[in-house]
Structure prediction request, 332 residues.
Amino acid sequence: MFELRANEKVMALDPAALPGDAHIVFIGRIRSPWRERSECPKNMRAALETGQRASLMLDPPYREGLLGLEGYTHAHIFTWLHQVPRNLIIQKPRHATEEQGTFALRSPIRPNPVGLHTARLLGVDQQTGVIELEAIDALDGTPVIDIKPYFPSVDLLADAMTPKGR
Amino acid sequence: MFELRANEKVMALDPAALPGDAHIVFIGRIRSPWRERSECPKNMRAALETGQRASLMLDPPYREGLLGLEGYTHAHIFTWLHQVPRNLIIQKPRHATEEQGTFALRSPIRPNPVGLHTARLLGVDQQTGVIELEAIDALDGTPVIDIKPYFPSVDLLADAMTPKGR
Prediction:
């Protein structure tokens, strides 16, 4: 399913096979229209362009933690991209002209496959644990590991720049 | 060290005691001037105001993954805030007038204590694994779990708003 492309490189060590330094608990799941990797938008901008909404279903023990989130317009959703390899350190995305290091990419393939999805909140229901999202670039069923409110004071970096062509 | 304040609430289940659904590997460490929680800035804005620089030391197996990161001005640094409790679901920060759910706060205390620090990159050295940062709101020695480039196209949300007073 994941083929190594030209110039891509795997590490000698595979984080998936290491004992682990800490453990993650899944606190909920993403509900999205995307059932296959081939149809899943590659980033939040592409997800928004589909016009398809999504939601997050938080498990019962964690629902009280939503108190106050309804006052924010956007949140960072953190997911665990559990179906990807973790040992690729140089990658050549299909759209890219040159290979890049994993930490210069937003690819789901990384030593700790944490996904960061910053989404507009359309509704927060503490009773049912459902957060309605404008869109998301994650497969249906993707485990959720954290939710943080978006604070423009620390998250909106007006002078941030990317290299030419990216 | 962590006292429960009035109106704060712990969950019946403690994520720290659960078997875990996935494992994290530490890929490096933060080097910062902050040795004690009492002196550590509470957010990136406060960290910048100190004028104190910081750095990230990436472990050898992961250093090739920095290829191309030098072209970006800012990156999201993900840490594991390993010294905090994980079972607090309603919190009353010292500065706040009302208690909030954990997911409406950027507090380090959360079911999965993933820290998100978006910092300006002052230097990226693939050979030594050192990333120089303008500042960081994390204790010296904090484990690093991921690094992603900041993409204004998905990370800069010009219309994001917070509730009045926050």
Observations:
- Chain A touches chain B through 75 residues (CB under 8 Å).
- Chain A has a mean pLDDT of 94.
- The first strand of chain A starts at residue 9 and ends at 10.
